[in-house]
Design brief:
Helix content is about 60%, strand content about 0%. By secondary structure, the chain is an all-alpha fold.
Length: about 120
C-alpha cells in the first residue's frame, strides 16, 4: 500500500484523536486543492470514509492515487508521512495492560505485535 493510502486508512481508524483528525483534514484539503473536489481521487477517499474497513475501497483509493500521480507530489507525500508519524507516536494509541502473575510463570508475553520464543526443559 502506498504512503498516501496507508495514511488515509490509518487516519480513518483514529479520527477520534484530534491530532490525527487535524492532520487528516490537512491531507484531504490538499488532495481537493491539487486534484479537485470532484476528482476520482477525492470521490474514492470520500467513499472510503463511508466504509473504512472495505478492502475494495482501499484498493480504489490506491488506484486513484496512482492514476493521479499523487504519490509524486512532494507536498501530498509529506502530509501523508506526517500523518503516519503522528499516528505512530500518538501515546493514546498505545494499549496499556495491567497484569498480575500468580504462581510460577514460564514465559509470558504482554502487549501487541510481539514475538517470543521459549525453550522449556
Amino acid at each position: 500500500m502506498d504512503t498516501i493510502t496507508a495514511a488515509i486508512v490509518v487516519a480513518l481508524a483514529n479520527l477520534s484523536k484530534d491530532a490525527i483528525k487535524d492532520s487528516y483534514n490537512a491531507l484531504k484539503t490538499a488532495l481537493k486543492t491539487k486534484f479537485g473536489s470532484d476528482s476520482d481521487l477525492t470521490e474514492a477517499v470520500e467513499g472510503l470514509e463511508k466504509k473504512p474497513d472495505s478492502e475494495a475501497r482501499q484498493a480504489m483509493v490506491q488506484e486513484e492515487v496512482e492514476i493521479a500521480k499523487a504519490n509524486e507530489d512532494s507536498e501530498i507525500v509529506q502530509l501523508a508521512k506526517a500523518l503516519l508519524e503522528k499516528a505512530d507516536s500518538d501515546e493514546s494509541s498505545v494499549n496499556k495492560y495491567n497484569v498480575e502473575f500468580q504462581g510460577e510463570v514460564k514465559g509470558a508475553q504482554i502487549g501487541d505485535k510481539n514475538q517470543q520464543e521459549n525453550t522449556f526443559n
